Amino acid sequence: MDLDKIGEWLDSVDRKLKDPSLARDLHEAKLSKPVALKLQGATFTLDGKAGIHVHNSKDDTDEDGVLLTKEGESLETDHHKIPPQISFKPSKVWLKYRAEATAKGSASRSLEDLGFSLDGNAGVSLSSYRVHGGEEKLKDAVLGDLKSLKTILSARQVRELEIGEAVSMRAHGRIEGSLTFAWSDVFTTQMSVLTDTLATNETLGIKVGANASADVTFRVNDEFVLTFARDHSAHVRVAVRKAKDRRFGAKLSASVGVEFADPRKVQEVLKPVLEGVLGEPESKIEEILAFRELDDLSERQREIAEKVIDRLGLDDAFAELEDLRDEVKALRVKLEGLLKQAAELKAKIGLSYEYSRVRQKTSLLQAKIANNKISGYHAPLVKGKLRPILDDIDAGAAGVSLESYMNQDSLKVRRAFGFSLGIGKWWSLSDRSEKELDETVDILARPGEETRSRVSFRGLSAFEVRAGRNQKRISGDLSASMDDFSASLEPKANEFDFGFHLMFQWGERKLKRDEIPLHIDHAMLWRALAPEEREDWTAQVGTGFGDKQDVEMTCQVKFDDTAFRWFIMGIGEDQDFEDARFGQAMGAAMPWTDRKALREVRQSEERRRRYYGALWTRYLQSPSMQASGLEALAKENFRAWRFPKVARFEGAGNHATSMGMLVARNTQMRRRWKEFHAGCLRLQRAILDRKPYTEIRKAYRSMRPLWSNELLARALGIYMLDRASEGAPSIKAGVERVLTVTRDANNASVLTISLS
After folding, report:
1. 21: Cβ–Cβ under 8 A, 6 or more apart, which residues?
2. Is the pLDDT of residue 64 over 50?
3. Higher pLDDT, 655 or 245
């Protein structure tokens, strides 16, 4: 900009800064000559457009999200509030100076060689926010600011920011950060990576310390806004956010890459994972492998060797100890690689899920930096390197503190179930239930191009039931996101990737041993355990826990895009046929009991399906049947099936787990199932017919009430798994089923179990 011409323009609008007649966008012009700015070997050349904007009203909006103009507004993450970079005050006025630039390295070294991860050739936008009193004249304020304009490229100028001022940079490129996961959380959704080492229908159980952790380094390519702002004389606040729309990036889609950070972390869990795969303690295996021939083993040792041979899928008719020795040796090496792969997959899925749902106003990273520490972090942050500041925060270094990181208040992911990085934050919801799909929209808006959108939905519905000091939680998480921007202005349902995660969690204070079979039964229904292993795993889960121990048990089933689409596309329009299928699942889902009168029909899934499935099907297909009618039907049928004690139990109508009482307490069960079926058909048609993406929300509204009921949620998991079992291997591979057992209030150990 030419200062003389700016002076002429300012003379024509010689008003006070608080004058409400001032337009937000005061002035825009092309720079009269390039301006070069330096940062560690890189040259940033201001040679494009520059603009001046005034923010003197709470109705003004800042497109870069640095200045929040609602007084006292804070930024909402999923479970806590964080301060904004600059908060509007009615007594103040902000002038924002913005200029476009390009960046390049020195003659001998590129930007990448210099450690930059931004794409300087795509363009950079630099902004400076200066604060003034409302009575100040516009001309005096602008001319004074331009004579000492501050930019984000100078650490000194960042340190010199006055309270209420900020500098920012918007650019396309890559940010690099890190995350720490508990190994137990990695296993909850990546057990299939490890169960593939086993023969079919073998169960893998891994017990690790709750504090055992895996570190990953990630890179996200997208368009970002980096800001340094001062709200206190002793520190500045740094924030990294994804841009509201895309201006500079050559690539339209955001991408996430992940690498395992510290190979030594694998050794923390290699032994328990090896023992879980082999099904025996490592010491016993080593003892056996020390012999030369199978014939040299004792009878008990021979049994163990044959068990391991079977689990590894070796030909037991020809296998020798030498074969087993070679297999175990190779297995150790293979497991190291698989553990790294599992951690990377967990992080990539979680990061992609969370990142696509991060709004423009929510910081990916927000931290406070003391004045004497600014110089040390300034250059790495401008280059897109988050690791230096994250490492110091993790180490508890003085002068730097975290406010928010990837929607969390910690660098360590907590309770990362399903698709999310941290499922624990969901339980802080005030009403324990998200009733709508939470929609996040990214915009691609470039001059001369049609505006396009990228949409992500977050649809976790969580329900909590408390009984004394115990609690039961049920959640269903529908994931729907787009990898790329839409082909047209309005995205279509077929452009989304889907996923579904269903979870039961029992927080048992003082768990009694006789309660364990109830949870084991649920795990078998959701295919995390084989039916023939009921007694073995009931005993193993109980070992070390004992009576009256604090235990949390979680059973989960997760469908990826391939498996979920198979399920949705397989839903038929024949209501009676689908009623029969879901009725069978409801029968299987009937509560397990050791009550003598009911053992014959309740302890076996097969028997529950046979007897209760037929009754639930009649109920679903009979619009007028109420609880009393179901009681009479159950009493009549169980008498005909020659179970008189069961007939009396079901006909009495006063038992909490009888069919009649279940319906009496949940009168909407039939309606919820019908609406779920209709919602699935709606989503199916939306995908097939390429309808607007808003159909996903409407389908979800119909589907979500089903898993708010305990029996229906159990049945839904069974119903979906029944469908998956009919699919090709690729469909089955897209389904995870896991039982997790966490011991005592201090999370001393976590046992994760899954069926291969």
Report:
1. 15
2. yes
3. 655
Q: What percent of the chain has pLDDT over 70?
A: 88
Instruction: Compute the average pLDDT of residues 605-611.
Output: 95
Question: 405-409, 477-481, 548-552: which has the highest mean pLDDT?
Answer: 477-481
pTM, full prediction: 0.84
Name 579's Cβ contacts closer than 8 Å, sequence gap at least 6.
Answer: 617, 620, 621, 673
Residues 682/702, Cβ–Cβ less than 8 Å? yes
- Residue 495 DSSP SS3: helix
Express each pLDDT in 415-464 by its tens digit.
Answer: 677 777 664 444 443 334 445 567 777 777 666 677 778 888 877 777 77
pLDDT of residue 471: 75
Which residue matches tokens 């020390």?
290
Residues 660 and 680: their CA atoms lie apart, in Å, by 28
Fill in the DSSP letter of residue 486: -
Cα angle value 580/585/588 (rounded, 5°): 125
Query: CB-based burial of residue 324 (10 Å sphere; 0-12 exposed, 13-18 middle, 19+ buried)?
Result: buried
Most confident of 41-45, 577-581, 597-601: 577-581
Whole-number Å distance between alpha carbons of 224 and 752: 38
From the DSSP assignment, how many helices (H) and strands (E) are in the chain?
23, 24
Statement: residue 207 has pLDDT above 80: yes
Residue 660 burial (C-beta neighbours within 10 Å; 0-12, 13-18, 19+):
buried
Q: Which residues pair with 177 in a beta bridge?
A: 218
Which alpha helices (DSSP H) does 122-204 contain, by range? Answer: 138-147, 155-159, 183-195
Q: Which residue reads 């078998």 in tokens?
A: 524
CA torsion 126-132-136-140 (nearest 10°) is -40
Residues near 213 by beta carbon (within 8 Å), at least 6 away in sequence: 180, 181, 182, 183, 265, 268, 412
Interval 588-597 mean pLDDT: 92
Distance CA 486, CA 444 (A): 9
User: How confident is the prediction for the chain on average, in pLDDT?
Assistant: 85
**Three-state SS at 121:** helix
Reference 474, options 518, 508, 436, 432; nearest CA is 432
Q: Distances from the Cα of 531 to the Cαs of 302, 586, 711, 713, in angstroms?
A: 26, 18, 20, 20
Q: Is 584 left (phi over 0), alpha (psi -120 to 50) or beta?
A: alpha
| Confidence check: pLDDT of 94 > 90 | yes
User: How do beta strands 749-755 and 203-209 pair?
Assistant: antiparallel
Q: Which residues are within 8 A (CB) of 176 and not within 5 positions of it... i.e. 6 or more apart? A: 117, 217, 218, 219, 384, 385, 386, 387
